[in-house]
Design goal:
Blueprint: H1 38-41, H2 45-57, H3 68-75, E1 82-84, H4 89-96, H5 104-125, H6 133-158, H7 179-182, H8 191-208, H9 220-233, H10 237-250, H11 261-264, E2 271-275, H12 290-294, E3 307-309, H13 311-314, E4 335-337, E5 345-347, E6 357-361, H14 362-375, H15 385-399, H16 409-419, H17 426-433, E7 436-437, E8 440-441, H18 453-457
Antiparallel strand pairs: 1-3, 2-6, 4-5, 7-8
Organism: Hymenobacter lutimineralis
InterPro entries: SusD-like_N, SusD_RagB_dom, TPR-like_helical_dom_sf
Subcellular location: Cell outer membrane
Amino acid sequence: MKKYTFRAATVALLLAAGLLSTSCEKQLDIQPQQSIDAGLALGTPEGIGTAVVGAYSRLYTPGLYGTNLVLIPDLLASEGYVAWQGTFQSYRELALADIENFNADALRTWREAYRLININNLILGGLGTITDADTRAQYEGEMRLMRGLLYFELVRLYGQPDINSPLGVPLQLKGINTLTEASAKVGRNSVQEVYTQIIADMQAAEDLLPESNEEGRFDKFDAKALLARVYLQQGKYAEAGALADEVITSSGASLNPSVLDIFTSKGSAEALFEVQQNDQNNAGTTNDGLATFYSGKTTGFRGRADVNVSSVFVAQYETSDMRGISGENIGESLLYVGDAVRAGRRSFKWNDPAQNIPIIRLAEMYLIRAEANVRLPSEGGNGNPAAALEDINLIRERAGASTLGSVSTAEVLRERELELAFEGFRIHDYRRTGRTLGGNPSTAPNRVLPIPDYEIQLGNALPQNPGYN
């Protein structure tokens, strides 16, 4: 099988489905009836609009938010949290923190992310055909926010945890549409350089995007919310808290009455941005997709029941807390004891492959604001512990948990873990806060994904991450 670089894998833009095509036989194999040259596809306003929609459709692929960008960060921090019971070796390696250089899902996520980044870049390069200024600004904001989000995921999974490390990920900011362009060798940008680009893209999107957009597409408040997430990861609590506050007070979103609502209905009041899925278009119902791996019930979608929730983690929830196992029947709370395939504790968050995947929801913004308010006083900032307590109790009351009389940083982090469980935050939160996993550093080399081996074998200037051969 002939190998190809991430750049050669992104040469062609498939207009109809927003997909890219490569071949095992040769570096590039584009069928005329399936694809169209990017210069032609993006040569009209209609073509650009179709390509933008196609870019969004890539987000639910299993290598991205359809599975891996949610599942992998949780498997990488599995201690006292989840166990992998399935047969897929790549996920087992991740859960055991014993990852091979050629891990199939490390490769799949890398490849899918860079394919979509190239689509973003090709669209950005073709915006000169759009004469309407508002439409052009919206498309630019959407593609820059998507690109910034993808680089944020990549640098956290494949880059070193140290912001001063030279081992980030390659920054590709120009669309590649020819083999000549694809043949150029690439290297790794520093972690700081990648974050600088992420923030630049998200800040630009914040300025360019409208305050509201159609469901399943980014708007200004999505940019603010994602930028708050980035600042939190960097420990910039004042900036993160201020943006989270803007989203809470001005986006028009509100917490759903029930913690189950956002995982059982589409476009609910709490959803800021969801990856759109339906019965025909989703990450998979057989051997892929979040519902496939998490669900284990005899009614509705059965699933494979591959992810078992640790009893240690379940015990952190109060018996009245609907985020734990509080209901007698499956579907009455967000955790349940499965009754199909395998015995075990399962998450009801991912119970239906046709359900949308929430990427940003308002509860996260309350948790970011609370963390900023509880941290800043000890760091000489203008925090507000009383406001932090109010935000945390709002989240807890909604779930049916008892309210707290005071709140510390540790309690905010615990609440964040309980609320955002199984949504792809765990390893990132443990790294940024310096917590250990099973007595070992969460920043250890075996918690960072390997650079795909084929990239290195092709002679790209991509040094492998420490701990891999």
